[in-house]
Design brief:
31% strand, alpha+beta, 5-stranded antiparallel sheet
Length: 326
């Protein structure tokens, strides 16, 4: 896989929200045994024993076999400048016999030729830190955190080039990438899954703070009710929260199971949606498209008893999902 042509807009937009002087590049992946054994990830030498996943080296430089970016990271890169004038250079062709007769001795053959100018980019030697978080028995997958083990200073004159290279390296290795404030912990990164959507501002990790940032232009009384919904969903103890542009910037997701997620609208008066197997696909649809589809979902109107209705649905659905394990 080749270098990204430019820094993606979703990264540029997220970068504007980060307040720390430096950032890190990383991603969280849910990996199955097949992902590890039958893709380029096998170059990382994971070891699988039953439901245990280990790795010999948790900080490693991606092997050059991953692709052109990894090769450049390890070996550097020679650039031929065909856009510049050629230069004359004396080239040594080695030792030659005088007049074609070795008995008369040897001489060193030099020739002057016009060649393109060249420059060499030194290898960056970026390494990836790997942390195996947990195992999901239902999905038979491990949650694994990958972080480029070098923070990037935003005010550096080489920041954009360094960031583009790091994103490209992770993209070649994982087909995914994201950025985070440099002071974020591994546990906090693991709680924010990168889907296909642009991640909301994450300089703060509290879900209530994130949503409050989206409510600044709304009526304060309505804000209060919306934030009360946030508090209630937090009380239900989701595994993690998910944010993104696939939610049209009005929803956040609370993941209770890989096949069960609650999408709550941050606009006052809207309903709560509970999506199941195809939630990543369905969450990109409009409300009208979801309502008119034959897909499996539940919808809870914010009536007086919406909390109990949501709790009952979650209890029932989670019980059903646990039964499918056996």
């Amino acid at each position: 896989m080749s270098m990204l042509k430019r820094i993606p807009s979703k990264i540029i937009n997220k970068l504007k929200t980060i307040k720390t002087p430096s950032i890190v590049v990383g991603s969280v992946k849910n990996l199955t045994k097949k992902d590890i054994l039958e893709t380029k990830l096998h170059y990382m030498n994971f070891c699988i024993k039953g439901d245990k996943l280990t790795i010999d080296q948790n900080i490693l430089i991606p092997a050059e076999e991953f692709g052109t970016v990894s090769n450049e990271n390890v070996n550097g890169k020679e650039i031929i400048h065909k856009d510049k004038p050629k230069i004359r250079k004396n080239i040594c062709y080695g030792s030659r016999p005088k007049f074609g007769d070795s008995s008369k001795g040897f001489f060193t053959l030099w020739q002057t030729k016009e060649i393109y100018q060249k420059s060499f980019i030194q290898p960056k030697g970026l390494s990836i830190k790997i942390e195996i978080q947990d195992y999901d028995k239902t999905q038979e997958s491990w949650r694994v955190l990958f972080i480029i083990d070098t923070p990037f200073a935003i005010n550096s004159i080489t920041f954009e080039d360094d960031l583009l290279f790091a994103l490209s390296l992770l993209n070649e290795t994982l087909n995914e990438f994201d950025i985070f404030p440099s002071n974020i912990t591994s546990e906090e990164i693991a709680l924010t899954r990168l889907v296909n959507w642009e991640i909301f501002p994450s300089e703060k990790r509290d879900i209530k703070f994130l949503i409050n940032q989206k409510l600044l232009t709304l009526n304060s009384n309505k804000n209060k009710k919306i934030l009360e919904r946030v508090d209630y969903i937090k009380e239900l103890k989701p595994k993690q929260f998910i944010f993104g542009e696939g939610l049209n910037d009005y929803y956040y997701g609370a993941l209770f199971h890989d096949n069960l997620i609650v999408f709550e609208n941050i606009k006052y008066g809207n309903a709560t949606y509970i999506l199941y197997e195809d939630w990543e696909k369905l969450s990109k649809l409009s409300k009208t498209e979801i309502l008119n589809s034959d897909n499996n979902f539940d919808r809870v109107i914010h009536s007086n008893n919406w909390k109990q209705m949501l709790k009952d649905i979650l209890r029932k659905r989670l019980q059903e999902l646990r039964k499918t394990r056996y």
